[in-house]
Queue: 3 jobs
Job 1
Amino acid sequence: MSGLVIETTGLRKEFRSRRGTRVAVQGLDLAVPAGGVHGFLGPNGSGKTTTIRMLLGLARPTAGEMRLFDQSVPASLPSVLGRVGAVVESPKFSPNLSGRQNLLLLSRSIGTPDTRVDEAVETVGLTGRDRDRYKGYSLGMKQRLAIAATLLKAPELLILDEPTNGLDPAGIREIRDTIRDLGESGVTVLLSSHILAEVQQVCTSATIIGNGRLLASGTVDELLGEGTAHRVVVADTSAALATLAAAGLNASLDADGEHLVVDSDDGAAITRSLGAAGIWLSELTPLRPDLETYFLELTAADTLGTTTGDPR
């Protein structure tokens, strides 16, 4: 066993048309460890959905290898799909039935006990609204019901393709909380998205792609690295600026003009310098690039690559 839930090697997908060949995924090596939430990140059209469709047997790769739970796919899909749940496209639910009735129909069609409906409804936070008609659901509730449907068979791997697209801030928060809870419960979640501020709040690891190619992969901490500056909050910023300058530490006011940014990763040196001058800290916070900044820098450097032709 490799210890990876998803693994691709040299994965490639070409689309041929009268206009020629368009490459959507080119030589992609993807490794998703078991447990937690793994962000699958890239700009729109970078090949995320195409990759997911190949993993699920919905599209045939042009070249390369894919494995789910250390089993080669698509050859072994029939034996592993029972362990996988996926929300790739908007599922079709009956609008005049309640959320619960829709889930009961699904659970009975796949032979799972009705108790799984109660568990799925509770997991996605629809308790109390599950008896409402589906047509009255908000977009966020519809997405949560779609996730609930995938949970009926208690999957070990859940694949979500842009689950917050079109949602308002409240809906995004609902889906984010659901995904975080699932990751903490032991389910491995592959979260495809381009909304980085949301992803950073739930992901433990991430893969970033651009033009169908791997750009970076690792834990979020590994990708962002250690902070090289500190945010400093003190009562007297002028005195603190002078003190830090005298200690050889470069400091400046931040954008709001109320706090300091010190260009040093040595928090102890900052504390000692200010404390020796009788200036006491009320906050000392390491600063590092957020995932969105890192992502934008990484993908901007990849703009010389050709477009993938992937419509999603």
Job 2
Amino acid sequence: MRVLPFLLLSSWARAQNLVPVPTPNLGSRCDDLDPAPLVAAIEHEVELMQKMSGALTVGTRAIPYAEYARTTLAPLGALAQKGAATLCAELPRRFAFFRNPTGGAGTFTVYHNPMLRGSRTRREPYLYPLYRRPAGALSKLTTAEILGGALEGQGLELIYLGDPTEANAVHVEGSATVLLDDGSTISVGSDGHNGHPYQNIGKLLSADNKIPKSQATPIGMTRARKYFIDHPAELNVYWGKNPHYVFFKERTGPAATGKFGALTPGRSLAVDPAYLPMGAAVWIRTDMPRIAENRVAEWISYGRVAIGQDTGAGIKGPARVDVFFGTGDYATQAAQVTTRPGEIYVLVAK
């Protein structure tokens, strides 16, 4: 979930193929979360959008950002401030629902902000660096070149982690909170990437029949990570097959941020801006796991209002959605087990 300058927002407005659809069956509980964080997120986004040029495209309309903030986001926030019951009652009355007809049953996953241990200096067991963004040609090096030592000696190491599989995971999640060996805590987040295409190394492992679907893993750990823990020499081999490499910077303020600042657990989504306009309010329905005794006990259906505030190298397609779950054990576990169908609708004031 890479942070990019706001000046690129105009290019995200060209989301195509959204069409108006009848209001979906919202159910008796159309929003399952405390609305207060949603109100705060909307208020922050309204403030930003009022200062932005350009427009987001919904259906046949190009809606200036300031207008969308005033006519859709601000009223939505005012309804949420009155509580979930009011919000759910007014959604079908005051908002039109748009959907991409090519999305079908979407694919929903979960991402989170990991809590890790690390050091500012390289010493056992902290041997695995996250790099700052280099200048010039060094910023275009492939993952294989960087893992092979091409950035060593450049003074670009931001921090060192104690587990190479955790370092790889931070590249996927895009941020982390790191408890340093001196007792201090810092937040790190992405500072762009090298411009090369993304390859999912878990899928590469599966294609090579390295991780059968029957392989049991602890909740909170992907089958790929379990494989690399058991076969450490293979991590760099497969990681090197993903040329897309992320650079990092130390951050102040919120632990996890997207294109509009702080991410709100449960309310912030990573989407593909080629299909869904960034900054748009949406209504989603999908499933989340109830985890008990180190397994998924059941899948619980939920619906809620959320905001498309982030992107990701692996989030591609008309109904491909990554839901930010925040920090903590449950967020980590949910991120590792969740791949579920779901629906996403863009909201526009009638």
Job 3
Amino acid sequence: MKLPKIALNFRTLFWGAAALVVLVLLVLAFRPQPVLVDLGAADEGALTVMVRDEGRTRVREVYAVSAPIGGRLLRVGNRAGERVQAGEVVASILPGDPALLDARSRSEAEAAVRSAEAALAFAQAEAERAGVQAGFARTEAQRIETLFQTGVASQGALDRVRLELRTAQAGLNTARANVARVEAELAAARARLNPPANGGGNGGVVEIRAPVSGRVLRVLQESESVVAPGTPVMEIGDPADLEVVAEFLSTDAVQVREGAEARIEAWGGADALRGRVRLVEPYGFLKISALGVEEQRVNVIIDFLDEPALWSALGHGYRVEAAVVVWHEDNATRVPVAALFRQDGGWAVFRAVNGRARLTMVETGRDDGRMAQVVSGLQPGEAVVLYPGRELRDGAAIRRRGG
């Protein structure tokens, strides 16, 4: 009678224990798990805000050498990069050949010559007439002076002939000057029609000389060709006198001040170069981006502060990236930008307090894209959740990822 009672108790205990284990497993399975998060911390330190954009180097003073007259430009012997001295011949031009004139231009030149010849004949005739009148006035004046000395002519008659003599002499001088002027016009007309084949000891070649000492930056007209007056031939400058021109968006340029510190990056060297803003140009211009977006940009001119030996490999028109300091604070309370998110129209973070996430509103200031200034709401040393997800709520249990 006792054995069945013992078996019944064992069976009851077994199934009771099994049920208890299952219950515990269910509780553990459905219990909320801590959210795995990455943690950072607010701290105190220096915070520098910069604006960045692409730029290019350029020689501060570029001299464009152009053709002073039209004609045939002889092949340019200088190459880009060569050094030249001030006054050195860098190009030569043969003046334009009148044989190359079209029929209309030649007819106009020939008519100009005939007109000048006719004007010269008329001026010579006028000079001859003025000479005859001056001779007659001189003879008449001598006769009246003789009569005046003998008492026959009056003083008034003498004064009149003297006036007529001076008038006639002035007319002769005017006629002679007019002849000289017309002769010069005739010579110019003939020169335009038939310039001398040999204009000087250099065979009529016009030499173009370098205005300054430096290096040839680029040759714009290398091969022999016919050029018009003012055609650019080459550019000369000193590559050791470089500056940086950065094209900033106008919204960034308004934050830049003359004298601000700058850094020249991505120029090909191992370290960034130091610079200083010399000028923010007052005129903006429209530029179309690679995506077809219209952008208003402003040129910011930056001078190098490092020794030229550090950036001697740079040349005219090289691409660089310019970063200009617009704000700096040595002792700023900082928090990683990755911890910030929008909440009720402001900024907030999740502080990590005793394994729980605590929603905290903060007031922020400047940021450099990595760290943001905290004006109020956080103290240095407080831990914050980085990259908070949508599943994170105020008071939720958290656990550091990998901890």
